[in-house]
């Protein structure tokens, strides 16, 4: 079928994606083939496609499509994450619009609204991934809050609690006043902020003397329970055992001593507020200080804040500074820059807070999870992230797994009394009742007497089971899917969640399957703009991926984003790359259109140059296939694409098609045409993982295909060997052809005007092909030219073209002398470097060899030009 003049992605993409889905090409069931399994990093159910998703999912799709075409049973499991904090915030905002406050409704009512919101908006990002061409097994789509996955999360909690790895305790947590929940240390982003360092006056009890104390947070004085100095600070030796009066609060608190205090910071005296600072909490524990929590969950002062009760912490900071000054209790205030913890989820400034939470012990689980990465049982690409991983795993803290939210798996702890240990942990309330009766010795306890813990589990506590739970491995540890697909093959993710997710999945895999969850982890970079800023909605520097797809086609966008995306390195987004991707699609389209336009004639036979071109391209393609395989082994996806780009654009379109192209209006030999189509088909197979839509469109156009012969499930050409000498010979031929073409271009001679050449060589490889592509009428071997000529070197081979009679010899002589002068200057600089003893002694041998080659090449070119001058 004759293709249209222009490639139209909009017509093509939906057609072929629907075709792939209709024929179930993406679905996988266990079979006799080796599995290739990828689980998607589940995007937030609240999310829409952004450039980071585009990069990550394009890479996954390339890996999955290639594996499918390499003979693997490819299974890419899609899904979404319930994203407790983000989703709850969206639902709370929606309820607020409707005039409903979360505090006014029950948990059950709230969850009903949350599920409605999820059902309405939750599938958006997955639908967008289809436009990108993602070949996920959509029948296997999972959601971290669906009943089966939730059941597995609860099962894991109960199991770890029974093993003594989960415990409940009072700890200092990172409180997010906006989300109304605590968050983990890893979710706290520290940002520099301009503020003030306030020097407050704490009166020494029973005297008129004051102790000066520096703080950046004067609003927390209502929680002060001591002032601490360093025992080695001689300035305060006389205050040992004395007490001070807290400004405004007028409470008496002790002066204590602790080595933690930095003598050089501020005044060397530190106010201790154990309920509102992590370090103060530790000091408070050591010195058995009471704790006064003076802030509520909204970050407002509570009753301990006296007349500031109900006011926001930052408002109070300004007001209290003014009051302290008025009362003569503020010595001074200096400008100060400090690092402030903010919530990754909401951006709110974190408030350290003492709270009773659930924790998972990490030290026991971390050691084996560290070992499998260090010994490359799980390989990181690039390897540099092993050091990041090791540092975190060696300094790991217990994981705070509870969140003060309703959207999420509710912690399966059931309370039957007021005592500290009056609770049981069970998968169901019925099991909990049985356990509670045993523990309490109260035989007439009823389900209505049990109260389930209000908190939900951290979202990461569900996603750490993802490679197991998507195959229901916690519910049925020996089911056919988990036994076939686990461990998964490759994980593609960002380095920013190496701790949140990658490390924890490895721990869960070793804990529950006794083997790692994946064999390779490919870390993508962060997509940044030209100014190296991270793309974000707030900066307005992130393009809409769907708009890019509409403008450049999904294939163009995929190629554009991959061309500059080396593993682990940030990608500097440039829309011109998308244009390059679209232009590549146009080039391929036009190449096929050119081939289609040739007429076959049974009486036309291949000539010698046809055979030479075919043999060269077959070997060149096999060499490229081997190199592509090597790049995929190293997870250098961008480099693999560059190889595909080169073999199609340069080798096939620019050289091969030119070599076998019949003269205008002349027919082509059927054998050459058929071989060319065969090569094109192999190239489409190589291209397909990167540009699935265009390649399928052309593949289906080449001939009538049954569904069993679609490109998406075709097998790529295997190649292990190739004739490298033949390829090198062709490179020499290309240089000769390019040299002759350059001569014509520099002298303004038409390509249609044939030339003769003289060479010192006895033979030239691919002679017929060289003559055809360079339009050479005759080659004079082993002959030196004795008249004005244009001469160039190809290795040791001299090639000379007699200058046309209408060329100005004086001008040619001037150009030659100028070039000669330049080369002699360059030679002097190289020789100067080679005569430098320091350079020769310190430079690596390969660097010295490069300079020696420069010297030799330049000397040969100078000799040629000097010979040329003799004839001018």
Q: Which class of the domain at 181-352 in CATH terms?
A: Alpha Beta
CATH-derived architecture of the domain at 181-352: Alpha-Beta Complex
What is the CATH topology of the domain at 181-352?
Answer: Isoleucyl-tRNA Synthetase, domain 2
The number of E-state strands comes to: 29
Biggest sheet layout: 7 strands, mixed
Task: Quote the distance from N terminus to C terminus.
Answer: 57 Å
Task: Give the averaged pLDDT, no decimals.
Answer: 91
* Uncertain segments: none
Strand content: 15-25%
* Helix percentage range: 40-55%
Number of contiguous helices: 27
Radius of gyration: 37 Å
* Structural shape: elongated
CATH H-level name of the domain at 181-352... which superfamily?
Valyl/Leucyl/Isoleucyl-tRNA synthetase, editing domain
Please state the structural category: alpha/beta
């Amino acid at each position: 079928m004759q293709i249209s003049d222009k490639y139209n992605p909009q017509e093509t993409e939906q057609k072929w994606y629907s075709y792939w889905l209709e024929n179930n090409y993406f679905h996988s069931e266990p079979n006799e083939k080796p599995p290739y399994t990828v689980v998607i990093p589940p995007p937030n159910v609240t999310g829409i496609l952004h450039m980071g998703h585009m990069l990550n999912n394009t890479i996954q799709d390339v890996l999955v499509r290639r594996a499918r075409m390499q003979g693997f049973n490819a299974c890419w499991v899609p899904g979404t994450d319930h994203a407790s904090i983000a989703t709850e915030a969206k639902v709370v905002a929606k309820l607020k619009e409707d005039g409903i406050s979360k505090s006014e409704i029950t948990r059950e009512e709230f969850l009903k609204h949350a599920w409605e919101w999820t059902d309405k908006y939750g599938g958006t990002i997955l639908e967008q991934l289809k436009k990108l061409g993602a070949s996920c097994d959509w029948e296997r789509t999972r959601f971290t809050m669906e009943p089966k996955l939730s059941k597995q999360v609860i099962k894991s909690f109960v199991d770890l609690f029974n093993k003594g790895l989960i415990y409940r305790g009072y700890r200092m947590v990172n409180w997010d006043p906006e989300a109304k929940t605590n968050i983990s240390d890893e979710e706290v982003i520290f940002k520099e902020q301009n503020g003030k360092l306030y020097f407050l006056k704490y009166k020494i009890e029973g005297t008129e003397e004051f102790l000066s104390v520096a703080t950046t947070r004067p609003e927390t004085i209502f929680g002060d329970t001591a002032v601490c100095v360093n025992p080695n600070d001689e300035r305060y030796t006389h205050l040992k055992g004395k007490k001070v009066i807290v400004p405004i609060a007028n409470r008496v608190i002790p002066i204590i001593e602790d080595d933690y205090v930095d003598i050089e910071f501020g005044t060397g005296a530190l106010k201790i507020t154990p309920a509102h600072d992590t370090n103060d909490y530790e000091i408070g524990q050591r010195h058995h200080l009471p704790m006064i929590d003076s802030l509520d969950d909204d970050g407002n002062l509570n009753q301990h804040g006296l007349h500031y009760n109900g006011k926001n912490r930052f408002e109070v900071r300004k007001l209290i500074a003014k009051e302290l000054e008025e009362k003569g209790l503020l010595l001074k205030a200096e400008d100060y820059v400090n690092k402030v913890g903010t919530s990754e989820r909401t951006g709110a400034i974190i408030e350290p807070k003492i709270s009773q939470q659930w924790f998972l012990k990490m030290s026991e689980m971390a050691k084996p999870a560290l070992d499998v990465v260090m010994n490359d049982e799980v390989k990181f690409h690039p390897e540099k992230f092993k050091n990041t991983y090791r540092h975190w795993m060696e300094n790991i803290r217990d994981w705070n797994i509870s969140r003060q939210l309703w959207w999420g798996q509710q912690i399966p702890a059931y309370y039957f009394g007021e005592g500290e240990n009056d609770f049981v942990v069970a998968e169901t309330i019925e099991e909990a009742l049985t356990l509670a009766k045993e523990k309490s010795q109260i035989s007439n306890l009823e389900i209505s007497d049990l109260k389930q813990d209000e908190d939900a589990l951290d979202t990461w506590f569900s996603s750490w089971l993802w490679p197991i739970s998507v195959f229901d491995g916690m519910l049925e540890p020996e089911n056919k899917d988990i036994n076939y697909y686990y461990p998964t093959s490759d994980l593609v993710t960002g380095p920013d969640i190496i701790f949140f997710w990658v490390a924890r999945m490895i721990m869960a895999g070793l804990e529950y399957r006794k083997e790692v969850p994946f064999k390779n982890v490919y870390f993508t970079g962060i997509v940044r703009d030209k100014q190296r800023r991270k793309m974000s909605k707030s900066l307005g520097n992130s393009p809409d991926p769907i708009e890019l797809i509409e403008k450049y086609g999904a294939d163009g966008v995929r190629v554009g984003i991959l061309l500059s995306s080396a593993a682990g390195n940030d990608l500097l987004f440039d829309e011109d790359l998308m244009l390059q991707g679209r232009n590549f699609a146009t080039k391929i389209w036009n190449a096929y259109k050119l081939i289609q336009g040739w007429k076959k004639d049974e009486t036309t036979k291949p000539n010698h140059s046809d055979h030479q071109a075919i043999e060269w391209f077959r070997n060149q393609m096999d060499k490229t296939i081997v190199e592509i395989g090597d790049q995929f082994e190293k997870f250098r996806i961008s480099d693999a694409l560059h190889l595909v780009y080169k073999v199609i654009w340069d080798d096939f379109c620019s050289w091969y098609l030119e070599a076998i192209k019949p003269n205008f209006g002349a027919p082509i030999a059927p054998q050459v045409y058929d071989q060319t189509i065969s090569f094109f088909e192999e190239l489409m197979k190589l291209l397909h993982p990167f540009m699935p839509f265009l390649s399928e469109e052309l593949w289906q156009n080449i001939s009538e295909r049954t569904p069993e012969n679609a490109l998406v499930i075709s097998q790529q050409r295997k190649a292990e060997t190739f004739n490298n000498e033949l390829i090198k010979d062709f490179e020499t031929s290309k240089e000769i052809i390019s040299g002759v073409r350059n001569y014509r271009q520099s002298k303004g001679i038409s390509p249609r005007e044939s030339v003769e050449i003289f060479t010192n060589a006895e033979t030239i490889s691919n002679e017929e092909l060289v003559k055809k592509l360079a339009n050479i009428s005759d080659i004079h071997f082993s002959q030196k030219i004795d008249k004005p000529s244009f001469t160039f070197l190809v290795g040791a081979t001299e090639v000379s073209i007699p200058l046309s009679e209408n060329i100005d010899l004086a001008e040619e002589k001037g150009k030659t002398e100028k070039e000669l002068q330049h080369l002699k200057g360059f030679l002097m600089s190289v020789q100067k470097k080679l005569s430098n003893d320091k350079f020769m002694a310190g430079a690596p041998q390969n660097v010295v060899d490069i300079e020696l080659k420069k010297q030799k090449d330049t000397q040969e070119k100078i000799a040629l030009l000097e010979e040329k001058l003799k004839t001018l």
